[in-house]
């Protein structure tokens, strides 16, 4: 049996300093392992326990771990997970499928064909974002892999009515909007993590799929998996979103990431069964 584990990264498996959510007294806070450095500074962390469990899980025969992220390839490749390197990785919200670190050209062509047929072009959406965003709260505007756009904003200053209007405008053109931290993403609806996960499952012959994620852009991934988990924080938790195959965890912050790795281990079988008992 082959088990495919497709997990979102930021605020699901790995956490920035601002997202750690360490509410306990300092002397009992979990030990952390830095898994990402950017511009010579530590950026993202897992608990040491989560890192050890993930290393054991990915070493188990029959387990295919697939990092699944909205990050670009360059952003993803900064991350150094413990354990065996992932053969497959899904980047750009499903727009890029990496095989041993190399973009799969056939997959990219398939994605480009679907986007051209089913939604408004990126140029139109990007132009609308630039024309309507207020310089008072807009900090950066970026294109990702020529597939989608995002804004870096001062979140507290973004008017709710502007965001709602953007959602309505985007939906009419086949695009989705997601607010994650200080970033507002505009993503074509055909650009999904679930489609890329299904492709990896087909290539690996996976008989079971497990997934985790925290944002609205992860909902399709969680629904497509046989079993899935979401942490007690993020867009999905804020909306009270769940589904029959999705377990809504109560833990939030980096400890939720640890709980997700444990859940993967318990469900994957083999070493996974032992993983579930390593840490209470």
- Spatial separation of the terminal alpha carbons: 27 Å
* Number of E-type strands: 15
Largest sheet: 5 strands, parallel
Element pattern in H and E: EEEEHEHEEEHHEEHEEHEHEHEHH
Q: Find the structural class using helix and strand composition.
A: alpha/beta
Alpha-carbon Rg, integer: 18 Å
Low-confidence stretches: 276-280
Largest sheet: spatial strand order: 5-1-13-14-15
Shape annotation: globular
Percent helix, as a range, is 25-40%
How much strand content do the residues show?
A: 25-35%
Mean pLDDT over all positions: 94
Number of helices: 10
In short:
This protein is α/β, with parallel strands linked by helices and 280 residues long.
